[in-house]
Automatic annotation (TrEMBL):
Cross-referenced SUPFAM superfamilies: BolA-like
Protein name: BolA family protein
Family matches, as PANTHER family: BOLA TRANSCRIPTION REGULATOR, BOLA-LIKE PROTEIN 1
Family statement drawn from the similarity comment of this UniProt entry: Belongs to the BolA/IbaG family.
Pfam families for the chain: BolA
Length: 83
């Protein structure tokens, strides 16, 4: 899957999410990606639960189209603080 397709899947599956996906640095395989996902659904959730929401959104694609995803997840407020 290309990064734009992965962005669309995440954004369509997680309410209010904004995803930015790119090829992982140093990786030459098309199936290694890095994603930054901002979503209000992460509010009050532990980091592991946030990542699980993204993996759930990607579903079967994690075993068929994507080998690995390096995730950075934020609530909208956390993301604004990072800027």
């Amino acid at each position: 899957m290309n990064p734009e397709d992965v962005e669309r899947v995440i954004e369509s599956e997680l309410e209010g999410a904004k995803a930015t996906v790119r090829r992982a640095r140093g990786e030459h395989d098309d199936d290694h990606l890095a994603a930054t996902v901002v979503s209000p659904t992460f509010e009050g959730e532990a980091l592991v639960a946030q990542h699980q929401q993204v993996y759930d959104a990607l579903g079967e694609r994690m075993t068929t189209d994507i080998h690995a995803v390096e995730l950075s997840t934020y609530t909208p407020a956390e993301y604004e603080e990072q800027k």
